[in-house]
Inverse folding.
């Protein structure tokens, strides 16, 4: 048990004091009640001395000892730097009022206004946790963020071997870990998130990523490339701003200075490129930071103490509309008197001559463009002057040299063309877009005309719109002069027929529109339910049922294939999901829905959440959350070419997270739910390469297999986990070596994986040994998942497996073979 003195909610006892107390308190407590009183006095007086002292001679830091903790239950208590400028703790409303959970990190401490106390660094790149969480400096020297209800370590600094004795929040905003000699062995400055503070640097291949919007990862990042160039990029596809310097220059780092300078510096410490804030060198400015914002722009901020707010002193992209995809899909960025705004590119197939209403900059509130293949009549071209359109997937854009009229004509006749932009800058470039994922910007100074292909307005509607302007041109119906009674009669009859036809067509069209609107609203309502609380609240147990037609809509007719039966989809608010087709599944609807309900109630940070399902006679699908970095096999087997690509600690962490997910399924659910199909392809990698298991529980919950097998489903899981552990260690699909020592010798010979210390070597040996135990041909000899987890965490030792054990697939019976 710890005895910790606290002042202002923060542990202030120092490491030398803690070491002294360890011996003295045990001695005093042996004297009974009086001894306990003396021990308490010793603790309090030592803490007072530690608090009022010089922090080991360094007046720029506030230190906390091993065992220090901050709880999410009391977010009013923060760890504040000595100068009072920075605070560390649980950050509320980070990313918006409608975002659940908390981010833990360093923020400014400039008053009561949340908009001035902007975060400058966050644990795990902004990972969210519940209020029932704790951040601590563990006794082995690791910083850890723990979800208390599950005991899961959400994030760790992995510094247990560095001799850490205390942590400090420096006046610079750098959170550091120090050893006995007050030497910094780890610091938050070395792992920037979206902000650089004065004195902080970027080195290849580091980057800054814009803050996420709600739970969707940002598409924008600032990269420092191998060449030393700084670049703002969208989704690794588009560079929309870059630094420019001589090609002969050698760049070591990008550094932000307290004077308001962002520079690229070579090995001689001379700047080869730099930009400055407009208040550069102003001595009255004491606080600055550089940040890539949610809108994708890079800005320098200066603190104005008089008005108590942050002011922009420089931004990389002067015209915000030049930030690629500023207004998202189907949006057009423009300017009005108040600044940049977004308008929708397209709203309704029957009103193609007008743009949509304004939406917030960077939002995705615009409707999807109409499917041109479903036009009732032919298509026409909407003309948009002083406008540039681009596809969000640039490889699908094609440049040609054509005149403006020829550019329009080419797109009109090309069935694959969705839009085109003709540049009137003398280049004669015509850009053809063959993707419906279109965005753009407009400005009076832009020498371009764009053409958007839309469904042609029906004649009856056009007649009703006579003498109105359409696409900038007057539209009117031809008339003829009729004379005589017969002519008058024919005219009246003709007008009557036209009126009758017009009314019939209008009523028919309105009926169709109302039906389409009703169906679309029904789809959007259902999909809104699919994304709402279920995506934002990790404890929501609701799984939404959708139709196959709705799934076709959100996957754009299954356009993006992620696997043999897995397709990427997008909800109306651009949250990505995955639709998995369950081919060959024959199970009654009641059992299917019971299974889905069970799986939907499972919530663990290492499980891909189930969001919805479809059950129809011919179609059975599941909808999961989208995990951005793909499956483990694509990354792991590629390491065989370069085993140094991932460190041993990264691979061990992946193995740990897989085991934790399996432990949750086996031990923490109301009933044991074996995974049933544990393989590399079902281990997905999220942000920072965190693990998300998918495809769990399906085979067991919906299986008609006989229970006569010699091993239970959970025992099969352990066997499959053993195979996976060896695959993670060796970076090979098939591992045919017959003993742990043989594998260790082979790894040592190939230097795969490279380990950095004796402790790492012991951990590697533990992983290999427990893997062989997991693959014992006799199921009763296999360890439980809790034992496997303890071995991987290093809290339980493991002996060599029996010498007569042979690891060969062909030695197993059919019932023991891995699925």
């Amino acid at each position: 048990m710890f005895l910790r003195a606290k002042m202002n909610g923060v542990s202030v006892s120092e490491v030398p004091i803690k070491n002294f107390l360890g011996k003295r308190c045990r001695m005093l407590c042996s004297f009974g009640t009086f001894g306990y009183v003396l021990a308490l006095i010793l603790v309090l007086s030592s803490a007072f001395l530690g608090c009022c002292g010089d922090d080991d001679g360094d007046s720029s830091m506030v230190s906390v000892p091993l065992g220090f903790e901050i709880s999410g239950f009391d977010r009013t208590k923060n760890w504040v730097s000595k100068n009072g400028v920075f605070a560390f703790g649980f950050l509320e409303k980070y990313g918006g009022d409608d975002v659940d959970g908390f981010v833990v990190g360093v923020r400014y401490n400039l008053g009561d206004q949340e908009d001035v106390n902007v975060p400058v660094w966050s644990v795990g790149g902004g990972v969210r946790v519940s209020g029932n969480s704790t951040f601590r400096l563990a006794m082995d020297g690791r910083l850890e963020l723990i979800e208390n209800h599950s005991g899961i370590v959400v994030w760790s600094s992995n510094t247990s071997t560095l001799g850490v004795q205390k942590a400090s929040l420096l006046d610079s905003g750098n959170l550091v870990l120090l050893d006995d000699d007050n030497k910094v062995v780890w610091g938050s400055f070395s792992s920037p998130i979206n902000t650089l503070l004065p004195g902080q640097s970027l080195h290849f291949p580091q980057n800054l990523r814009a803050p996420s919007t709600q739970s969707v990862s940002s598409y924008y990042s600032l990269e420092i490339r191998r060449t030393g160039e700084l670049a703002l990029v969208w989704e690794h596809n588009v560079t929309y701003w870059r630094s420019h310097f001589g090609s002969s220059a050698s760049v070591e780092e990008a550094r932000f200075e307290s004077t308001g300078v962002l520079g690229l510096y070579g090995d001689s410490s001379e700047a080869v490129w730099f930009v400055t804030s407009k208040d550069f060198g102003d001595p009255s400015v004491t606080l600055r930071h550089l940040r890539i914002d949610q809108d994708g722009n890079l800005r320098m901020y200066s603190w104005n103490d008089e008005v108590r707010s942050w002011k922009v002193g420089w931004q990389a992209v002067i015209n915000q509309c030049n930030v690629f995809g500023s207004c998202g899909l189907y949006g057009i960025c423009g300017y009005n008197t108040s600044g940049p705004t977004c308008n929708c590119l397209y709203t309704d197939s029957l009103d193609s001559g007008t743009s949509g209403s304004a939406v917030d900059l960077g939002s995705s509130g615009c409707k999807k463009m109409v499917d041109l293949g479903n036009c009732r009549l032919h298509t026409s071209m909407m003309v948009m002057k002083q406008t540039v359109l681009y596809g969000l997937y640039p490889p699908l854009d094609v440049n040609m040299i054509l005149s403006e009229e020829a550019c329009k004509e080419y797109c009109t006749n090309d069935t694959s063309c969705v839009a085109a932009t003709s540049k009137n800058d003398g280049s004669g470039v015509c850009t053809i877009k063959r993707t419906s994922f279109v965005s753009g910007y407009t400005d009076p100074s832009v020498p371009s005309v764009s053409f958007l292909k839309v469904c042609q307005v029906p004649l009856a509607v056009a007649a009703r719109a006579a003498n109105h302007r359409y696409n900038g041109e007057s539209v009117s119906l031809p008339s003829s002069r009729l004379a005589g009674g017969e002519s008058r009669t024919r005219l009246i009859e003709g007008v009557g027929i036209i009126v009758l036809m017009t009314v019939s067509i209008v009523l028919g069209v309105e009926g169709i529109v109302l039906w389409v609107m009703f169906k679309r609203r029904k789809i959007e309502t259902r999909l809104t339910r699919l994304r709402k609380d279920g995506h934002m609240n990790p404890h929501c147990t609701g799984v939404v049922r959708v139709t196959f037609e709705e799934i076709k809509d959100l996957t754009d007719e299954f356009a993006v294939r992620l696997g043999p039966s897995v397709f990427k989809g997008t909800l109306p608010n651009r949250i990505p999901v995955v639709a998995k087709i369950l081919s060959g599944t024959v199970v009654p609807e009641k059992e299917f829905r019971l299974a889905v309900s069970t799986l939907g109630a499972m919530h663990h940070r290492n499980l891909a959440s189930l969001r919805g399902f479809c059950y129809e006679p011919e179609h059975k699908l599941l909808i999961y959350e989208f995990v951005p970095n793909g499956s483990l096999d694509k990354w792991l087997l590629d390491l065989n070419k370069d085993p140094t690509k991932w460190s041993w600690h990264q691979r061990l962490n992946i193995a740990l997270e897989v085991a934790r997910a399996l432990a949750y399924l086996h031990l923490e659910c109301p009933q044991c739910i074996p995974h049933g199909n544990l393989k590399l392809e079902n281990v997905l990698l999220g942000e920072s390469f965190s693990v998300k298991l998918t495809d769990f529980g399906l085979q067991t919950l919906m299986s008609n297999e006989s229970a006569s097998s010699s091993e239970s489903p959970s025992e099969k899981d352990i066997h499959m986990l053993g195979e996976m552990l060896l695959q993670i260690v060796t970076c090979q699909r098939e591992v045919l070596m017959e003993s742990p020592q043989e594998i260790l010798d082979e790894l040592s010979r190939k230097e795969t994986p490279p380990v950095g210390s004796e402790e790492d070597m012991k951990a590697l040996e533990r992983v290999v040994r427990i893997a062989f135990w997991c693959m014992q041909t006799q199921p009763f000899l296999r360890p439980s998942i809790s034992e496997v987890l303890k071995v991987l965490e290093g809290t339980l030792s493991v002996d060599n497996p029996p010498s007569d054990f042979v690891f060969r697939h062909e030695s197993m019976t059919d019932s023991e073979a891995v699925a």
